[in-house]
Design brief:
Length: 221
């Protein structure tokens, strides 16, 4: 981490009292709202269908792009909130652990996003009317990096989900060290989202090797 992330001199656990805690509180509520939106949105597409039922049907392509765009919007809204949160924590002066946790949360969220983008691209190509069809812009890679890295993330998505849950644990622990934050709704919302992440991670591990499902975005969208 950069020097900006290091614990402030003369502070305990890198913590300095916030000059305007209410501003950070608003951002935290915004993040929780995005968590709830991610959680609730998956209910719209939880019923999957085996790929074989749709073979040769290009309606799957349309559905795939539509679902991914919805997923993308939710993830980027969440990421934007986290970025604001991270920036505000640095500006106001707070726990270095909170800054680190927010950074790790954003990193793992974007890695998971790229996994789902890659899966959606594969589904789109699988159901194209032609042998070689053009990939729509919505499904093109959004993150730069070595191609091999994405394959690693794809193999370990249950682990990534659990790491996301661990990041939230660190966020929560750091928040509880700040006296200005007394809103009990935040810990409850974060814990509920953690439970959902762990449930989904366990579900993915249980279904390793089983058939791919078209509505793979049901885990997050």
């Amino acid at each position: 981490m950069s020097q900006a992330n290091a614990p402030a001199t003369g502070t305990k656990n890198g913590y300095r009292p916030l000059s305007h805690p209410e501003r950070l509180d608003v951002l935290l509520h915004g993040i929780v709202n995005e968590m709830i939106a991610l959680h609730a949105g998956k209910m719209q597409s939880d019923q999957g269908h085996p790929i074989e039922q749709f073979h040769g049907d290009n309606r799957v392509q349309t559905d795939c792009v539509r679902q991914f765009r919805t997923f993308e919007k939710r993830v980027f809204e969440f990421d934007h909130r986290l970025h604001e949160f991270e920036r505000e924590v640095r500006r106001l002066g707070s726990s270095s652990g909170l800054i680190r946790a927010a950074y790790e949360l954003r990193k793992h969220l974007l890695q998971i996003f790229e996994v789902f983008r890659s899966d959606s691209e594969s589904i789109y190509l699988m159901f194209g009317e032609k042998t070689h069809c053009e990939i729509p812009d919505a499904l093109r890679p959004h993150l730069s990096g070595h191609p091999g890295a994405m394959a690693k993330f794809k193999r370990e998505i249950p682990e990534l989900l659990k790491e996301l849950s661990d990041d939230l644990d660190e966020v929560l622990d750091s928040l509880l060290e700040i006296p200005e934050f007394t809103d009990k709704r935040l810990p409850d919302s974060i814990c509920a989202f953690q439970g959902w992440l762990e449930y989904r991670a366990d579900g993915l591990e249980d279904f390793k090797g089983s058939c791919i499902r078209i509505r793979n975005l049901s885990f997050f969208s």
